[in-house]
Amino acid sequence: MKNSMLSVLIPLLMTNMLVLAVLLWMPVIRGEKAFFGVRVSRETYLGEGRRILRRYWLCLLAAFFALEAIGFLTAYYRRNFAFALVTHFLSYFAAFALYSNFAREVRPFRVVSDATKFATPLQTRRLADYTHLLLEATVVLLTIAPTVVLIYYYPALPERVPVHWGINGQPDRWARKTFSTVFFLPILMTYLQSWFLLLKYDLVHAKMTLPAEQAEVYLKFKEQLIVASVHMMDWVRALLAIMLGTVSMFILLTTVEALRHLMPIANLLIWPCVGLLLIVCFYYVYRFMAINNRLEEATGNSNVERESEAAKWTSGGLFYYNPDDPALIVEKRDGLGYTYNFAGKGIRLRLAFLAVVPLLVLWALMDL
Amino acid sequence: MFIVVDENDRRPIYQQVVDEIKALIARGVLREGAALPPVRQVAADLGVNLNTIATAYRELQSEGLIVIRHGAGAVVSSRTSSEKTDEELRRPLRAALTQLALAGLARAEIMSIVAEELRGLLKGAR
């Protein structure tokens, strides 16, 4: 019993340490360009900023270790690792609260532009211009096919079906055959793919703030940033379709005798995809930074903000809420990446997609 | 092909948008059948209210320069603004010329300014 407890608690502790490291690093990843998500002056960064950072580190470490200790000790003595899980997630909330609280103390440096002339290209931004039909067809096919195949084979599946597989592709957990144990993955995949398509649509329609003096230069680089984000989305969507499509077939490949010989091949397919997914993510983060730096070299300021909009950011540039802004998706104020205008038209649909995630997880857990 | 608005300009924003688009139509940069971007995109980029751009588009429509089809967006329909009498066309010109005369410019200077502006306006026009 003690051993199995430790096998849960140790990975939990390790993920939490990793998250803690990222959280400690987060305010200073990009130096003064985005200190707590806010562009600050060099003096602020080295003076007042250091003091804010040190207090943030102290509070964060204290909160993390206190919550972790409480969770682990309770879990260990009560023989129930749910306690550790609860404090684990509580520590994320605590970290978020601390981050936004300290971010509020940071004084921004000249994010607001003194430009009064702004431009817009008379060219409609359309999703179709960023769409490769072959890729879309593949994604749609890989998303729908598993559902169809599983519906066809459903009566042939045994009463107990595998729900989890080890690294070598051998099933290591089984459950009763129900709608959710068989169809959870295809439904999750359909949901994720529709969400990502919506995200891609929003990205293409992101708002661009173009000062009139250098409108062409700004437009060129901002389009490059959108193309990079869209390409990253496409890679993620394609790889997810392959990975989840394959994994949702595992249930068939392990229980239907005639298909069993395909299992090793399917299992082998997963790992290159995981690797590629990581490479894609790292590559595009690098690419965003490179484009952003080039824009900054060319214009002197990678992101231009209007005074009326600067006041609408809360939690140190984490959230943007501006009912007067017709845009639904805007560039983040540090110039890297995009975020939603939480007062934008259609935001409810996007939030509904987000709200479905915990519901799906609960649904999956109910039948296991 | 950009349109620019200036927050410090005395003209209302919608009028600036109208004038910018008209200039592009007059120069032939925006040809007949060219689609204008959706109101929301223009408004977001320029940082102005949706209604401001909608008003500008309606103004252009009422002058017969664009047609707005529901769902399909706005399309440049003509390179000539309709429904204006000779007198209506001359009135703003007369006002502008009066300004130049009051500024103390000689007849030849006014003529050269007018010619220069016209060249600039029709630059690249077919």
Descriptive notes:
The complex is a heterodimer of chains A (about 375) and B (about 130). Chain A has about 375 residues and is mainly alpha-helical. In chain A, about 65% of the residues lie in helices and about 10% in strands. In chain A, a hairpin with a 5-residue loop joins strand 2 (about 160-165) and strand 3. In chain A, helix 5 runs antiparallel to helix 6 (about 180-205) and helix 6 runs antiparallel to helix 10 (about 345-365). The model of chain A has no long low-confidence stretch (mean pLDDT about 85). Chain B has about 130 residues and is mainly alpha-helical. Chain B has 5 helices and 3 strands. Chain B has a two-stranded antiparallel ribbon with strand order 2-3. The radius of gyration of chain B is 16 Å and the shape is globular. The two termini of chain B are about 15 Å apart.
Strand arrangement across the biggest beta sheet of chain A: 1-4
Radius of gyration of chain B: 16 Å
Secondary structural class of chain A: mainly alpha
The count of β-strands of chain A is 8
- Report strand % of chain B: 5-15%
The major β-sheet of chain B equals: 2 strands, antiparallel
What is the general shape of chain B?
globular
Task: For the record, give the distance between the C-alpha atoms at the N and C termini of chain A, rounded to a whole number.
Answer: 21 Å
Query: With helices defined by DSSP (H or I, 4 residues minimum), what is the helix count of chain B?
Result: 5
Low-confidence stretches of chain A: none
**Count of DSSP-assigned helices of chain A:** 10
Break the fold down into its secondary structure elements and pairings.
The complex is a heterodimer of chains A (368) and B (126).
Chain A: H1 2-25, H2 42-46, H3 48-78, H4 82-103, E1 117-121, H5 133-153, E2 160-165, E3 171-176, H6 179-204, E4 210-211, H7 215-255, H8 263-299, H9 307-310, E5 313-314, E6 319-320, E7 329-331, E8 338-340, H10 347-366
Antiparallel strand pairs in A: 1-4, 2-3, 5-6, 7-8
Helix pairs in contact in A: 1-3, 1-4, 3-4, 5-6, 5-7, 6-7, 6-10, 7-8
Chain B: E1 2-6, H1 13-26, H2 39-46, H3 50-62, E2 66-69, E3 73-76, H4 86-102, H5 107-121
Antiparallel strand pairs in B: 2-3
Helix pairs in contact in B: 1-3, 2-3
